[in-house]
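Why do we care about 3D structure at all? Because function follows from shape, and shape follows, mostly, from sequence. That is the central idea of this module. The next example makes it concrete: a single protein chain, its amino acid sequence, and then its structure expressed as tokens.
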Amino acid sequence: MKAFLIDLDGVLYVDKTPIAGAKETVAMLEERGYRYRFVSNTTSKCRSTLAKFLGGMEFEIPEDQIFTPAIAAAERIRAEKDNKCFLLTREDVRRDFEEAGVPLADEEVDFVVVGDAETDFTFDRLNKAFRLVMDGAEIIALEKDRYWMGADGLYLSAGPFVYALEYATGTLADVVGKPSSDFFEMALAELRASPEETAMIGDDINTDVGGAQNVDMTGILVKTGKYREDVVEYSNVIPDLILESIAELRAYL
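And the structure:
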């Protein structure tokens, strides 16, 4: 491997606690000249906030080394001139769309963008999104994960709410985050690496490992974050490598 795409939540940290040895592993990648980017399905924070959050845990990761579904979605919507979107996300994520110059609105929109809105998933906002889609807007799902791991256990992610809108409207969402092939290809383009020379490191057997393998990358699964042995056992995805944590990667470099 010459390059790595690395998940954040569950791989470098859980909630606000760094994974033991994660910082040292990132430092080793830098010292030995590996190319790497951090690809996250985290959609409750904009990229600049995420970089500051990582800095608070002493990860020295520049903003431009982080690639998120919000960045991918903003690039896609901006490419289609004059399209407006309604955001069903946390307020902080608006910054990625505003900085990209994407028009935001509550009426007569072309896209409804759904991310991990957490406590902002109110009935009124969900019903607003439902009505906009029924009026012709497309659904863009920043991610479709079922859950994520917090300090005190599992939390619902955006996926269950995306499925609810799909069911209610009879409209399928376009997923722009992992495991979307387009997402991985955009990340590889930023990294200037081919799939064959790149490994994806993540804690989700399907989204991280399966998505990476679908574009001919190596898929490495770590047993931290939301890793669950029973999910791996019943998945049809077979990781190329399973590590106790990202710290164990140093033994393979």
